[in-house]
């Protein structure tokens, strides 16, 4: 599939010329500047992204926020002014490894203190790899309030990807709730537990469509089907041209599949790494993942086509998200003449596992993993009840951030500020039945962390299990900060530490920062602990993470220089010491 | 009126005995303890105070929060744990002068940095005067989210008030909106301006009644007329007994009148000062004021009576707030057989001004004011537009807090952190027409403050004027922190600095901390600048204050000792200095 695009010369000069002439095009990074400065004002504004009016966190008036365009090796400087009234904020640069700058990872509780209302905080970091990345709030559940956007890092001048295209496009897929994040959080941390239920709509590039005639919104004056905020996103393409479509995924809850009616997609990039291309009709994509796919506008040019996103892995009541794949010069608002494609059944796991297995590193770009680990950490994913509150745990430990963020606590040697006893490297493998309802009455909430010996090789085995509901196990997209990991393999059932490693792909495993853990299955990852800092590793479902579904890794903290004082100011570093 | 109660012996021993036997009674302070400790957890919870379910900020699960009961001279220690998810908080002890502890006044931006989520902050202060006070959030507009309560300070053992009663009761009157404070704030700071409109209901001691069948709430599933949260508050009284009713007022917007059907009220205390008793049928009360009234349960004991609060000074659409004045042993849920009293017309200013003028210091308790001021500050109250945003200003200056709270900036000599040029002591008195629409195109937003010479006498003249709407001037309740002021007089029209001071009451003016400024009128206050600190003086309408309606006074800051570092941690005192 990918070969059909090779006839198009990937000439940057020609591309720039074409782009500047074409009105619908998004800009590409200038090749001269090496420091890219952004001034962002973060505040609440009313928006109606799915026709339903609610408060959204905007950046410079926009939600999703502006796309960061850079070139490999550039330094990104974001001066973020918090103009929320009473809420703090922090922004994570998802997929950027923050080598040498772990304090700018933007993870409140792990790498920095929150940014107070009125404060201006400067993030400064290098984008050291080309590819498609994301940014989003990493404080409370603010990501779900709309604070997110795309990062696109181009190759250095003169270097080329192993695939070609004429135009570059980015979209972010999301789900959308009408409740505020505070309302959701109160439910999740209540006795009895109140679940957020299914999202009201799915957004494609910040636009969706809620049915204003549905109860209970009818008559409350907040839903306006003709609001310009919720006109479907239209991606305009020139007939016959090849496109690179960069897709980011940030839903709070749902796993999705994306389909562009009548068009195949050739997957070429995953989380910033070149993929041995393979063709799909439906791309399954999990919260926190990014992909690039190549698409050729090679269908009947007299009409438009549907782009459709759909919840998978849950029996969701949420209607599909729709956008328009607009063949120029058809009007971008002109609906396709067809019914949007239905796609595979939402509970059909096989094609999703097949896609996970199909993603391999592009030949010639594979960096083979070290052959053996120095340490293996097996993480049993369970739902538990702790003091009557529903939580998620790993090996019966539910993550609760300490009062002083870890990077600061360790960098400033304030070791009293969190539990120094490490959490367990495994669970009771022999006796635990992953197919039964969890009965982990001994689960605890803790802020303890895994300390990894610097530069060692660590395998992380994610082991899925039954939730607290009978015959139920759910997909978890796991995201690691500060690292790309090798994806050694996926399996079904209970991981066998003796036999399963023999099936690992040690030849061309893809490297990623986010990976699904399928129901009742396992996922095996390998990292080299060579990035000094403290890094969160967590389920990217906002609600699961809020309920404790994460762990924290430290490595090489002693190699870090002086921490910038800008990240401090809370916990043990609140207020200034007197002379 | 007050004499009828004098037959009841105000014996503390007898009272304690009676109280301990009577099931409906609230407790009175123990006389032994001198330090009163409270541990408060502040968080969001769902409540339906007027039958409509929304997020409310609770203290230890309660909204309004627990009543602080103390005795004059006690030290109050409140360990406040902020369990909000992403919002900071600060609590003001309204009416407590904070002598020697100005940093614990709880006014974010003036006296302390905000308390971060997860932080525990300890307020510690002395209640140096007996009387009825309040506490409430003083950060953003969180007060309107329900974070408030009462403080009741008893006399020392053996001392008696100049009035007597058998039982002591407290209620707080409030108004209630269904929007969140963030939603309201976004509207107020938008172009075009979006006003909050009239409150959805009035609460008496945290309970009100919204009409669940009214649009648009009908059908949204959030309104439940039979929720126990919104059963009317019932104040149970024993027939024939005399009661002291302490009334606090904290509405975001409305001035109110309170009426207890068929019962006269004898006003005996205002803002902690003994009043020369006078009898009213309707008590007018403005946001931030407290009163004690004596009531005798001397009506037909076979039925209950309405307690009714009503918006005055606005053409409000908000229905009256209702509670039940329950004659024991009638059932407290039994509605009175009558239609709730209507009270005077809401736009009838005369009785309100008459009440203001009627409040004099109790003879024998009057502390006469100094005869002459050292300085006179006249503050013209106007509505303005600044950079297209609607604001309120004093002498054309709209208050905007600096990034480092004033007490900290001055205490730590960080003078660069706010504008050192003082705001003007007056306005263009000769040429300004207070009856015309404000045309203050030169209004500015500023963080400059009034610096008062220590121990000098300062007169503050509040001058009302027309708003930006023709033929419109609105009541503003002005509240001063750190002080009680003498209320020298009220007048209509433009204050004349030569003739009007001759009409001042210098014999028995009441001292208060909150006072109304009536439409197109003036109010004259006198203070002695003898409390070292920095003190906010502002309109107590939450929305007006948010829109800049306040000034700040500094006095004797050089006399303060070392500031506790717990109040720091923001602005110029963010994070700790390295050794």
From TrEMBL, chains A, B:
It catalyses: 4 L-ascorbate + O2 = 4 monodehydro-L-ascorbate radical + 2 H2O. InterPro entries: Cu-oxidase-like_N, Cu-oxidase_2nd, Cu-oxidase_C, Cu-oxidase_fam, Cu_oxidase_CS, Cu_oxidase_Cu_BS, Cupredoxin, CuRO_3_AAO. Its cofactor is Cu cation. GO terms for molecular function: copper ion binding; L-ascorbate oxidase activity. PROSITE patterns: MULTICOPPER_OXIDASE1, MULTICOPPER_OXIDASE2. GO terms for cellular component: extracellular region. Residues 1-33 form the signal peptide. Its EC number is 1.10.3.3. It is an enzyme of class 1 (oxidoreductase). It is found in: Secreted. Keywords: Copper, Disulfide bond, Glycoprotein, Metal-binding, Oxidoreductase, Repeat, Secreted, Signal. Residues 42-154, 170-329, 424-556 form the Plastocyanin-like domain. It comes from the Eukaryota. Dimer. Belongs to the multicopper oxidase family. NCBIfam families: ascorbase. This is L-ascorbate oxidase. It comes from Escallonia rubra.
